[in-house]
Every structure is written in C-alpha cells, then in structure tokens.
Amino acid sequence: MKKNIAVIMGGYSSEYQISIKSGNVVYETLDSSKYNAYRIHIFKEKWVYVDANDKEFPIDKNDFSVKVDDKKINFDCVFNAIHGSPGEDGFMQAYFKLLNIPQTSCDMYQASLTFNKRDCLSVLKPYGIKTAESYYLNLGDNINENDIISKVGLPCFVKANKAGSSFGVSKVHKKEDLQNAIDIAFKEDDEIIIESFLDGTEVSVGVITYKGKTKVLPITEIVSENDFFDYEAKYLGKSQEITPARLTKEQENKVNAIAEKVYNILKMKGFSRSEYIFKNGEPHLLEVNTIPGLTRASILPQQATAAGISMSDLFDNAIEEALK
Question: Which residue range forms the structural domain that includes residue 89?
Fold first, then answer.
C-alpha cells in the first residue's frame, strides 16, 4: 500500500520562496509508485494542502490531517523542505514528535541548536572544531566599535545569528560601515554574530544518513564572483560550485573527517550541509545547515549525484530512514 507523504514547504522567514522551490522539486521527484505526495504550504496565516490545480484545503493542526471531498487524509511521514523557521529551528520537529508522525529532518534539539550559529559553534569548540574569532551582540546591547574590531579585526562578517540563505549578512571592510551592517543583521534577528574574515578556500560538505550509515558526500568548492557567498552567489548564478572540490588529498581527508565528526557529535540524522574555510591548511567551521536547498541546482543534490545517488534515491532514502 502506498504511503501518504506530506511535503512541507514555505515557512515564516525570508527564505520561504526558496523553500517552495525545494518542496516542489521533492514533490515532483518522489516515486509515485511508492508514495502519494501532498504539497503542504506552511505560512503564518495558513497551513494548507495545495492540490494539482492549486486549490487549497486547510490542514487540521490538531492531528496534521486534511479533508478532501469529505475524505480525511492522514500522513505516514513528513518530508521537511522548510528552510528557516519553523522547519529548520525545531518547532515543526517538536510538533511532529508530539503527534508521533515521522519526519525526514533531524530532531528538535539538533535543529534548534544548529539554527543558532552562536550556540552551535560554542557546543562544538570543546571537541576541537576550529572556528573564526567571534563577537556576540543582542538587540539593545551597547555597541563599542573599537572593542569589536580589536576582537575580530577587519574585514569581518556581521551575521544574523538565526537566519539562512545569507539574509542579514554583510562583509565589513571599514569601521564606518560597521553600524550599517549591524542594523541590517538586526532586521533578520535580535541576536547577531560578528566573525573574523578567514581568507582561504571555502567548501561545502554534505553529510547524510544513507542506508542506515553516516555518509560524507563529495565536497563542493565555492568560488563566488561577489565579495562572499551571498544571496546572489547562492541563487542568482554569481558563483562557481565545483564538485568535487579542487583540494589536496590531505585537505579532503581533514574536512571529511571533521564534517563526519560534527554530524556524529551533534547526533544528527537526515540531511546536513556544513560550510568550512581552510586557514593555514586547517578547515574552520562556519555553520551547519539541516534543511539545505533541494532544487536540482542546489549543492547537496549536486553532491549526491557525484556520489552516484539520484535525486529520487536521495529523497526515497530520507523517507525510508524516517520511517524506521
């Protein structure tokens, strides 16, 4: 009997449009001989099932079911394709845990922790995971520009602590530009992280649970045409994403080992994509993404393809792992 799969997409953050693209790719790719796939749009103002004719049916949040033509539909599994809140920060994971519905992403705590860049890096540091020098600010804190620059130097990166797709991120070259970058970051979140600039090769490493085991995918090298890997570079073609990355065998082994270590330390499951920059030959962790982009042009699917895993197999495996 075919399983009913809810592909959740959208969300409450600036990333909702990218999430809709990811979710639609999952919906179109799932094997129709095994699954009945349903597109579920999650927005602050509505949770709805959207059928093939774009007709909307409200979701009953009491048990995450939907009624179509007087027939109630329950779901065997949820495929989580929401970038940002509430799909990547633990809220949806907790909700589905309470309802005892399997879902494809990591658990609530891991989602919440990795979505908070500051907390995630702090948890990993005692395990020897190298990171950039950082300075933290909360909305309302006194801003001492001299203290910030003496800690992290220039240029530096100012980032919203809990945001993705490079929303709220600025690279600052001059002291007089620091306040504006802080203002931009605070538009996305009430916490920010300011990090030293790491000058080196940037790579993205996908790690997934595949057929019951932790699997590190082929590494992608990021070469941005812009000043850094910003929104334009990620989504508007202003970067080269080279898979496999042009690394020495020693560099490849080092970053693979660290990416797998991070995945296991955090007790992750499902998809993850972590970003690193090599400084003095050592990979420094920037962040961990638990709901990476899933379009055909996205990095994780590119890496899976390079590993000989089709998108259909990638998504099918995610559901099978969740159903275990």
Answer: 3-104
